């Protein structure tokens, strides 16, 4: 589900004549843009709850299920950074 029931959303297509419709929120409902937004936002460190709400997902669990590949990559990167930090710290002892 891309938008949860009961949440207000912009159903008009974005146009140049209507600058308010050009905001990100107008595009995230379009699945390819939503996916791009989610991946970039997660990689930039935006918390999963904010990403989930922006996409209009009913639950954070759904967002995590869909974007677990991104969070897995982030975990691996974090582990590599911690390894480097610990290794560097041990060299300076």
Features:
elongated, mainly alpha, 93 residues, disordered N terminus
Notes on the protein architecture:
- The chain has 93 residues and is mainly alpha-helical.
- It has one domain.
- It contains five helices and no strands.
- The protein is elongated, with a radius of gyration of 18 Å.
Outline of this structure?
The chain is an all-alpha fold and 93 residues long. It has five helices and no strands. It has one domain.
Overall spatial form: elongated
How many individual domains? 1
Measured distance between first and last alpha carbons: 53 Å
Model regions low in confidence, pLDDT < 50 over at least 5 residues: 1-7
Largest sheet: number of strands, sense, barrel closure: none
Helix % is 55-70%
Let me know the average pLDDT: 75
Number of β-strand runs? 0
Structural class label: mainly alpha
Give, in order, the helices and strands.
HHHHH
Radius of gyration, taken over Cα atoms and rounded to an integer in Å = 18 Å
How are the elements arranged and paired?
Layout: H1 24-27, H2 31-43, H3 48-55, H4 60-66, H5 68-91
Helix pairs in contact: 2-3, 3-4
